[in-house]
Hints:
The chain is of the alpha+beta class. It folds into 2 domains: 238 residues, P-loop containing nucleotide triphosphate hydrolases (Rossmann fold); 121 residues, CATH 2.40.50.140. Helices cover 26% and strands 30% of the residues. The two termini are 37 Å apart.
Amino acid sequence: xxxxxxxxxxxxxGSARDPLAVRDLNLTVADGEFMCVLGPSGCGKTTTxxxxxxxxxxxxxxxxVGDRVLDDVDAGVFVxxxxxxxxxxxxxxxxxxxxxVAQNVDFGLSxxxxxxxxxxxxxxxxxxxxxIDALADRYPxxxxxGQQQRVALARTLAVQPEVLLLDEPLSNLDSRLRLEMxxxxxxxxxxxxxxxxxxxxxxxxxxxLATSIAVMNDGVLQQVGSPEEIYGxxxxxxxxxxxxxxxxxxxxxxxxxSAPAGKDAGTGTADAARAAAAQxxxxxxxxxxxxxxxxxxxxxxxxxxxxxxxxxxxxxxxLTAVLPTGGSWILEFDADGRRVFGTTSVPLGAPVGARVRLxxxxxxxxxxxxxxxxx
Length: 375
């Protein structure tokens, strides 16, 4: 299937005075891509998915699949949902309660008036692929949440949609079933090669499933990239702080021109952080640098007498908590009044309350300017 292209897409609910739910969105979903649209509640991700599906009319902009225009507000073009060749799986499974599993899976095929033999073969094949063929004669009320989700996916896959649209389909499942279904979706994508657009607020779903991630906030696209790019080179502070658990550590850099009279704003941890920022972007002006960030896994406890690498951020701290997670530990420190998180896969060997020294390599420091963009 050709690429899906969103051009200056916008959506407003209510009057012209109401804010836009989606603003000036430019996004391309490549053929065969597994794209996750990630963001907090109310960021516009589900609205974007519904516009792609044809369930919402855009307020402005254009949606095209290759050369085929599905929406163009200026040209007055709108292709209804049933003619878009897309399958949509909702957060609620929306199964017919009076139909068996096999009849639910067959429902879309029957609407397409496919032959009885073709329908039967395809229903059996897709149920077998999803491991629900033994449940063919059961009704939805007799199924677990994970089984119902598989039936909803099977019903959509049976009609062989060119694009599969998933609106937070795993949010109603417990943690074990979510893990199983993530692996199932990954396998289905590899097997069928279907273009998938997956909406979620769960960063780990996005990181583990997607070939690319589009991060949104307040209706605005913040960054598009691979999971590694989103995590390792966040475009701004919002992306850096939204993605990651434990969250990224942020140190604000005080500026002399904004410091209270008689107080040096460049001392202590902030001063060391500014030196680290300068080392990270040695060929650029860092006068506008307002904050730095570093991931918890970048935090090291170093020997008191050890020298720091050139440009590395070093700070004295107090160990305030050790949180076991099973196989690893989250460490909480107090550094000059700032809470700093670290992670380790080996026991630290220091008691809570111990004074330690933390080190972060310059290569692991992210620098942000006063507008929150990556420096």
